[in-house]
Structure formats: C-alpha cells, structure tokens
Amino acid sequence: MKKFLCYFALIALFAGCSESSNDDIQPTPTQPTPDTPTTCNDMSCAQGCCDGKCVDFRTDVDYCGRCETKCSPGQFCQDGQCSNSCKGDNARTCAGVCVNIANNELHCGGCNKACAPNMVCDGKQCKCADGYVDCDGDAANGCESFTTSCECTPGATQQCYPYAQGTAGKGICKYGKQTCTVYKNDGFDDIYWSECKGAVGPIFKAEDGQTLDLSLDNNCDGTIDADEDYDHDGYTRGQGDCCDSIESCNVKIDCPEDMSCKVNDTSAIHPGTSDYAGVDANCDGKIDPNAPTLTDAKFQSCSTGTHKLAQNAKVTADDAMKLAKAMDICEGLVSAELLLADGTPLPQSANENICGSNVAKISPSQQIAVLESLGNVVKPIDFNLKDVTNHNMAVLSSGQAAGIENTQHSQCVGTEVEAPAVFLAAHNGVLPMSTICGGERKDTRANDSVMLRLKLKAPQTARSFSFQFKFFSKEYPKFVCDDYNDFFLALVDSPTNKAIPADHNIAFDENKNPISVNNAFFTECDKSKCKKPKGCSDCSGGTSSLAGYFSAADAGATSWLKTSVPVSGGEEFTLDLIIFDAGQKESSGTTNSGYGHQRDSLVLLDAFAWGSETTIITTTPIVN
Fold it and tell me: Is 467 in contact with 568 (CB distance < 8 Å)?
C-alpha cells in the first residue's frame, strides 16, 4: 500500500512538470536589477551590461529582463519576459527576435527601421532623447546637441567680422569665416559657431619698434592714412602729424612726477608748434625741457582810461584796438577793425535820407566807446585777484555808446545792410523769432549796426576762451515779441573748430535764442511795465543796473553773462561782436520815419581770457 501511494505521487509530480502550451509565459523581472551597471568598458549602454557587453533586456533571450535570466530554446524575449510566442499589437518578429516596434530603436514602427543617433523610439516614432535637439531638422542624421536650442547647423559656414561696424571691406580690413561646430562636452554635443578666423581689423598705430605703412588705409575709414587730418589742425599724418586722433596718437610723453601730462586735444599737436607740459607737441621726437606747463586761466588787464570819438570823426583800426584792449585781450590779438554788420566799412556820418528830419541823429563814431563805468553805476567786472585791477570795458551800441547821460537812447545812424549772411542762411534766410515768442519774422536787415571784428590766435597752451558781456535795450517793454527786436551776436569763424554751430553764433540761451529782449537772460527790468500777452520776463534781476543806463520804466537788461568756447592751441579764428537795430522799413511820403532805427540797444564787453581747460560752448549768468 505504501508503494502504491508513492508511485501515484510520482505520477502526479511528473504531470505537474509536463510542457506548457505556446501561450504560457515564464514570468521574469521587467527591469534590470538595481546593481546592474549601465556602462561596459567605457561604453554607455541603453539597457544594461552583462558579461562585459551591452545587452537589450527587452529582446535578448540570453539576458531577458536581467543578466541572470535565459529563455529556453525556442522561446522569445518579449518586453523583458520569456514567451513561447511573439504576440501583441506592437509585437513583431524581426531577424528572429521578438521586438516591440512601439519602443525599439532598431525597429521603430517596423522591422529594420532604426532610429538615428541620440533618438528614442516612442509610439513607433523616432524622437530626440531627453535633452537633445535636432538642430538641422533632419531626422535622418539624428539629434545633434544636448542643449535647449541650436545656435547653428553643424558644418555650415558664414562670414564674420569682430571689429568696428562699417570698417569691413575697407582698406586692409576684411571678413573672416567661422564654421558651425559640434563640441563634445562630457559625452554630450554642444553646437556653436567657431572662432572667427582670417578676419583683419583696423590698425591705428604701430606696435612698439615697428612702423606703419601710411600709404595704406590701415584704420579702414576709406582714406589713405597719409592723407588723414582727423583733428583738422592743417597737418596730415603723411605730413608728420604724430597725434592726428586719440587712437592713432604716437606722441612722446615724458612727465615729471610732480606734473600731470596728458593729451586733451590732438589738434594742438603737429609739426611747427611748441612743446608743452612734458609733451612732444611738435612731433620731432624730443621734448623741450623749457616747455610751458598748462596752468589755470588768469585774467589780464592791459588797458586803462576811457576813449570816445567826436561826432563825424573817422573810425580807425586804432579805435578798434582800443576796444579790444579794454576787453582785456592782452595776448593772441592779431588785428581789430570796426565795420558794419555785413563786413563793409563804417560811414563817417549819419544818413539823412534814412533817418528823416524829425529823428535825432548820430554818426558811427559815437556808437563805440571805452568806459570806466556806465552812468557811474555799472562797473567793469571785478577779477577778484590781488594783482589785477580791471580798469575799463568796451561799449558797442546801435545808438550812442553812453549811459544815463544819453537822455534818449533812440537815435538814428541811418545805415541799413543785410545781417551776416552765415547767420541768415542758418535761419531760413531771415532773422529768427525767439522761441519765447513763437511765430515768424521776415526781415533780414541790420540797421544802425556796428561790428568789432577781432582776429585772434590762441596761445599753444589754450584750450578755450571766454568773455563777459551785459546787454541793455530800450525796446523793453514796448517791443517785446515784436518785429522790432535788436540783436547782439557773437559770431566765430574758424576753419578748424568743429564745435562752432551752423549760424556761427556762440552767445545764446538754453533754447538757442540769440541775445535780445526776448532772451531768457533778459532778467533786469520792471515786470509791471510789460503788458504783452507773452514774452514778458520775470524780471528776477531787479532794476538797479538800469540807473546807469536809462529809466527803469522804459528799458531793461541782462545780467552779466559769460560765454565760453573751446579752442585748440595755435588756432587762428575771427570773432565778430555785432549789435544792430532790427525792424521792418516804414516810410511816410518821401521821407523815412526812421522806424527800425530807434529805441536802441547797447552791450558792455569785458574780461576776455584764454583758458587751459577744454569746454563746450555755453553762455551763463555770472553770480557776484
């Protein structure tokens, strides 16, 4: 009985171990075990590494799901499980291997449809693996860059030029080339444009111990270097200018420890000039040990006493020089002359035909003066220096150059010329209406004008000049914002000074309005007397100075103003200081009524000085 029972048990056991049907699957893990390595012999494996080689746990019958699982002969490894058949919606037998065409990179969407490098099979479609980008849009060559974006397409080339815009293709300057390159970075690909190779940029000056071929356009500005005169000092680089611009400056500097030697203005450096402050300004390769240093500007006074001319006296160059000296121009004065506003000579007497018989008349000789005060009230500028006393000042007027002793300030000289052509040309051919007033005017004439023309040459150490002035007018308040607006202009003509504005006028307010009763600087007046709808000053400067000129009820003035202008050392230029009546011509029968020649204006000129510091063109009130 015991033997029977044992035999029956063996049969039952054998029956339990019989071959299963084709549909049976032996269960195995679907993922590699945690300790399964992902690299083999420095190779990266997508699924796992077994026995020193990369394997695919999803399909490899020798390593199905894990290194330790081997399928029986005749079985498939399908999605990491041993199976007696290859079945399922996405299952296919490819080259004897059961694959899932929905996620197999070698058979994506069908047998032998392999994905390109750095791609995975997702839903039967080859897509970039996480972090990779298909830079060129061509899935056939895979995904190139392990970045968030692509800078360029690998292998592409383009022109490059890492220097100043606008210089490429000029002179020695030329484009280079760069290539879109795949850079390996810790196993990933980064795609960037390579360094620009072969490009040539501007060269402004030679390296130490070398020379620059000036017959070439080395700085690529379109001009041969030898012909350049960037600083407009009249000397080209080919003529020996060793410092034509800051970039090309090869000037020799040997600065003592107790001095500050630097180049602020390259136009002051050229052959023929003089050295200064440890700088080889004349480009001869040597520095004059006795060269002057740049010092702060100091006022000088080179004139004393007064100067007036009689009625109908002839005005000469000597009179003009006296005015210049009274302005304290003690250095750099080449010549001086007195003219009408258009540059023609002053007549000797008044024009009766213009003025008429009912208007007070004076001659041009009375339009100028050197005074020690205006009406014993307005004095020359105080220099506030112990060793300098300012004795006098120059006066120009469209009437009589006098203070309170002139009881009219409404006299006619009878001259009529065009205002300076360069000034008119910059203002549409007419005298401009102040922005304070708005509107337009049509007149171009300068009536009863007088101009002090000064030809000057700046000292080598000068970087600026300045002068001071004070403008009075009897046009306030009656002709505020009217066509009868007298002008004071200060025009500079310099062939080398690029700072000078188009109309050449350097005396103006913050809105570029020239000096007149309609100027923002016209602040000394009685506001209660102005009844005009616009243009009335706030008269913040009071009326005290008017006691030296005329009644405060019928006149006004600016404060003392200072105009500053940049110059270059050695620069030659002309300064025209002009005052004139302006207004439309009106006649009564055959005799002119003299309108446009009355209600005169006057300007005091003083305290001219050369400065050692550069500046911009400004006119500012002087605060005493």
Answer: no
3 pLDDT more than 50: no
- Nearest CA to 311 out of 259, 267, 352, 363 is that of 363
CA 218 to chain centre: 24
Give, in degrees to the nearest 5, the angle at Cα 548 between 542 and 552. 45
Tens digits of per-residue pLDDT, 116-146? Answer: 988 899 999 999 888 777 877 788 888 876 6
Q: What is the DSSP string of 7-35?
A: HHHHHHHHHHTSPPPTT-EE---SS--TT
**Kind and range of the H or E run holding 179:** strand 176-185
- Amino acid identity at 95: A
Sequence-distant (≥ 6) Cβ neighbours of residue 22 within 8 angstroms: 84, 85
Phi-psi region of 356 (alpha: psi -120 to 50; beta: other; left: phi over 0): left
Whether the Cβ atoms of residue 396 and residue 605 lie closer than 8 Å to each other: yes
C-alpha to C-alpha distance for 549 and 127, rounded to whole angstroms:
93
Residue 257's SS3 state is coil
Residue with tokens 């306030």: 476
Q: Which residue has the higher pLDDT, 610 or 21?
A: 610
CA distances, 121 to each of 107, 108, 117, 118 (Å): 8, 6, 11, 10
Q: Taking a C-beta distance cutoff of 8 angstroms, is the pair 211, 235 a contact?
A: no
Q: Where is 158: in which H helix or E strand?
A: strand 157-160
